From TrEMBL:
One of its GO terms (molecular function) is heme binding. One of its GO terms (biological process) is response to oxidative stress. The active site is at H82 (proton acceptor). Ca(2+) 1 binds at D83, V86, G88, D90, S92, E101. Disulfide bonds join C51-C127, C84-C89, C133-C332, C211-C243. Its main location: secreted. This is Peroxidase.
Length: 340
């Protein structure tokens, strides 16, 4: 009983009040425009006049593609994380040329590019030269999350696309092997905090990891040729059988792998942790209380806070019309001016 009270108090102290939009209809009328934090010249009504069907086109395309391949939902969210985590939410990850982020070895497992290209092609027919690829990726990842049972949040738009993309910058993206201190330093450089770190890590409630990223924990932990003893023994047996080949994949949430809920945090409490960073969240005193709180409270509390943290993330390092370096690409994978 005491533990439950403590977890409630923790969430009450850190929780940002957010309208009850999770699980709702994206077309519902609400008063979010009155309280939404706008930065970097972005606007909730940016496309209302110049491309009023923008969000409808994006949602329709995401629905079409994810109906055929449900794994594209988590893939889009991961693609956004990799974009925002390098030089900001500027669609630099979409540029496809020698030496670009997309060609980096660390990006080889990213997916969803073809879906973004399809959305861009459709939008160019309706609103040529007006909608950036950065805004498309921002909207598509939100819609994919919503379709998986996650929250729906309002996006501010008006981003421009980067003209540059360098593979060397990809090392800035938090990896599954970093410790909490390194992760916090990275998040703080984005203007995010420890709560955002724990909440956005909750995206691991959906999606998969390649076995190659965890084989060292299963077969040669700390050069002992054994398994990380912090993993639940039965779960470790399952992972060893599943991950004999590096190219195989394993669900990040073994209990409810295709449902956007707080099961990820419950799994962490049960030592069912796939990535090293998952394990560190439970061990570190700065993050462990938050993990415990989200595990013990109803799923909607996590979903609400996820929406808050996502609106902060998609504002990281954006380029707007006031920045001379930004453009609106005609094709998301290609520069408007550079032949590759």
């Amino acid at each position: 009983m005491k533990a439950a009270v403590v977890s409630v108090l923790i969430l009450l102290v850190i929780f940002v009040v957010w309208p009850d939009t999770y699980g709702g209809d994206e077309d519902d009328d609400n008063d979010t425009k009155s309280w939404f934090p706008l930065d970097n010249q972005l606007s909730l009504s940016y496309y209302d006049r110049i491309c009023p069907d923008f969000e409808k086109i994006v949602a329709t395309k995401v629905r079409e593609w994810t109906k055929k391949d449900s794994s594209l939902g988590p893939a889009l969210l991961r693609l956004l994380f990799h974009d925002c985590g390098v030089t900001g939410c500027d669609a630099s990850v979409l540029l496809d040329h020698e030496g670009s982020e997309r060609r980096s070895p660390a990006s080889k497992t990213l997916r969803g590019f073809e879906l973004i290209d399809d959305i861009k092609s459709e939008i160019e027919k309706a609103c040529p030269g007006l909608v950036s690829c950065a805004d498309i990726l921002t909207a598509a990842s939100r819609d994919a999350t919503f379709q998986l049972g996650g929250p729906y949040w309002p996006n501010a738009y008006g981003r421009r696309d980067s003209t540059d993309s360098y593979a060397r910058d990809v090392e800035k993206v938090p990896s599954g092997r970093r410790d909490i201190t390194a992760l916090l330093e990275t998040f703080q450089s984005y203007g995010l905090n420890v709560l955002d770190l724990v909440v956005l890590s909750g995206a691991h409630t959906i999606g998969k990891a390649y076995c190659g990223t965890i084989q060292s924990r299963l077969y040669n932990f700390n050069a002992t040729y054994g398994t990380d003893p912090s993993i639940d023994s039965k779960y470790a047996d399952f992972l060893r059988r599943k991950c004999r080949v590096a190219s195989e994949t394993v669900y990040l949430d073994a209990a409810t792998p295709v449902k956007f809920d707080n099961q990820y945090y419950i799994n962490l409490q049960k030592n069912m942790r796939v990535l090293t960073t998952d394990q560190e969240l439970v061990k570190d005193p700065r993050t462990a209380p938050l993990v415990k709180a989200f595990a013990e409270q109803p799923p909607h509390m996590f979903r609400q806070q996820f929406a808050v943290s996502m609106t902060k993330l998609v504002n990281v390092g954006v380029i707007t019309g006031e920045d001379r370096v930004g453009v609106i690409r005609k094709v998301c994978s290609k520069s408007n001016s550079r032949p590759y």
